[in-house]
Amino acid sequence: MEGRGSSTGASYVRLVTRSDVVWAALALVLFTPLTVVSEDKDELPRFIEDVPNITVTVGRDALLPCTVEQLKGYKVAWVQVDTQTILTIHKQVITRNPRIALLHNDHRSWHLELKNVREKDRGWYMCQVNTDPMRSKQGYVDVVVPPDIIDRESSGDLTIREGQDVTLTCRAKGHPTPSIVWRREDNQDIVLDSDKADSGGTDTAHTVKSVEGETLVMKRVSRLQMGSYLCIASNGIPPSISKRTQLRVQFPPVAWVPQQLEGAYIGQELTIECHTEAFPKSINFWTNTNGDMVVSDERYEPIVTETSYKVYMKLRIRRVEKKDVGTFRCIAKNSLGETDGAIRIYEIEPPKSHSNGVFEMVEADGGSGEGSTPVPQNHLNKELKKYEDGRHPKGINDVTDAYQHPKNYDSKGPGHHTNPQRGLQQPSFGLSFGQSSAARPASPTPRLTLTASFLTAALLPLWLSCFLAAPLCW
């Protein structure tokens, strides 16, 4: 819209904008002297109540009430104070914001409605009447925002080498400002310093359930700290939000063999075990006594169970043969190295018994004579256990002195093991009568068979002689 005029012979052109019209209208309404000549103070418009302060979650609607009595010919207007924006005048909505509406009723209620509230709507709002002097009430709209994690400023999944330090970062936004707590997803303790936590001390500051703050710092990380860590942001406005960070710790393979020595007779079924740990994931396999890889067939069944970075290896030998006597190895390899664990299988003879249920006493060398019976493997293990505990009776030393006990593998060292001496023979079997009697250890002795009939035949003549010639026996 253009305005034209002249002054002292000069012409001018000026654009009239919409804001000019709005301000002109507002000036006419609010600042033009009223036609009311004189009124008592008690007859002027008055507010029934204050405009309240309200809190609203972003995205919801808000309503600011304003109730005026005795308005008469005066006008009510709503103004956003912080931005000095006129929102409504009397029954008209002035702002171009489509989310703002005016609810009025009976020339008394003048409520301002904010739809789909946004953060920029936060601030002070004024309901005013164009009296002289102007009367007004103000209320504050607080727009709260649930927490939201800022991905670009937070840590993603990390892979580090064992022994290094690591720092995880998590940043969030929201109103009020969110607080951040770190936890492990598996609910295990967070180890802040592996060396100090493993030292056996009583300082619990290095092992905690949770850590508050945007950063989580862990020193000298070990494989035990591998897993998922949760950054949880909350500010009292639901819902809270969390972000998962996966921590991977790389290390070369290590192996541990629970039982390094296994005895078995030909035709027996036998299972050997080996435990390995590695990350990245290792390649695991068995080798036989010739050093060849063991594959699954009718005699061999490799069994592998994996949990996280741990692998539990088993090898089931359905029928032990002569060629199985020797050393089997479990091998683990990854990009950082390899290791192996050794298990020695030695041959024992299958247990034998006579039809009358009487066992024979045999030599420890398992001689080739008739009726020789080896010590069962479980009996050997029990006797050795007694010796190790200091509970074995006298006489066991001659058995155990020829035996080299296997040692458990230290997971922090290389994956090799000390095997028993070659040529190990079984300790002798004890003398017992009846199938249910327990075997007792004895030193190597000549083969001897004792039966009830033998004892009777040997002792009866001596007893008769003593009976007939009592003075000679006594």
Automatic annotation (TrEMBL):
<keyword id="KW-0325">Glycoprotein</keyword>
<keyword id="KW-0812">Transmembrane</keyword>
<dbReference type="InterPro" id="IPR036179">
    <property type="entry name" value="Ig-like_dom_sf"/>
</dbReference>
<feature type="domain" description="Ig-like">
    <location>
        <begin position="45"/>
        <end position="142"/>
    </location>
</feature>
<dbReference type="GO" id="GO:0005886">
    <property type="term" value="C:plasma membrane"/>
</dbReference>
<dbReference type="GO" id="GO:0043005">
    <property type="term" value="C:neuron projection"/>
</dbReference>
<dbReference type="Pfam" id="PF13927">
    <property type="entry name" value="Ig_3"/>
</dbReference>
<keyword id="KW-0732">Signal</keyword>
<feature type="region of interest" description="Disordered">
    <location>
        <begin position="358"/>
        <end position="445"/>
    </location>
</feature>
<keyword id="KW-0472">Membrane</keyword>
<dbReference type="InterPro" id="IPR051170">
    <property type="entry name" value="Neural/epithelial_adhesion"/>
</dbReference>
<dbReference type="Pfam" id="PF07686">
    <property type="entry name" value="V-set"/>
</dbReference>
<keyword id="KW-0677">Repeat</keyword>
<feature type="transmembrane region" description="Helical">
    <location>
        <begin position="21"/>
        <end position="38"/>
    </location>
</feature>
<feature type="domain" description="Ig-like">
    <location>
        <begin position="252"/>
        <end position="349"/>
    </location>
</feature>
<protein>
    <recommendedName>
        <fullName>Ig-like domain-containing protein</fullName>
    </recommendedName>
</protein>
<feature type="domain" description="Ig-like">
    <location>
        <begin position="147"/>
        <end position="242"/>
    </location>
</feature>
<dbReference type="InterPro" id="IPR007110">
    <property type="entry name" value="Ig-like_dom"/>
</dbReference>
<keyword id="KW-0393">Immunoglobulin domain</keyword>
<keyword id="KW-1015">Disulfide bond</keyword>
<keyword id="KW-1003">Cell membrane</keyword>
<dbReference type="InterPro" id="IPR013106">
    <property type="entry name" value="Ig_V-set"/>
</dbReference>
<feature type="compositionally biased region" description="Polar residues">
    <location>
        <begin position="418"/>
        <end position="438"/>
    </location>
</feature>
<feature type="compositionally biased region" description="Basic and acidic residues">
    <location>
        <begin position="380"/>
        <end position="392"/>
    </location>
</feature>
<dbReference type="InterPro" id="IPR013783">
    <property type="entry name" value="Ig-like_fold"/>
</dbReference>
<keyword id="KW-1133">Transmembrane helix</keyword>
<dbReference type="InterPro" id="IPR003598">
    <property type="entry name" value="Ig_sub2"/>
</dbReference>
<dbReference type="InterPro" id="IPR003599">
    <property type="entry name" value="Ig_sub"/>
</dbReference>
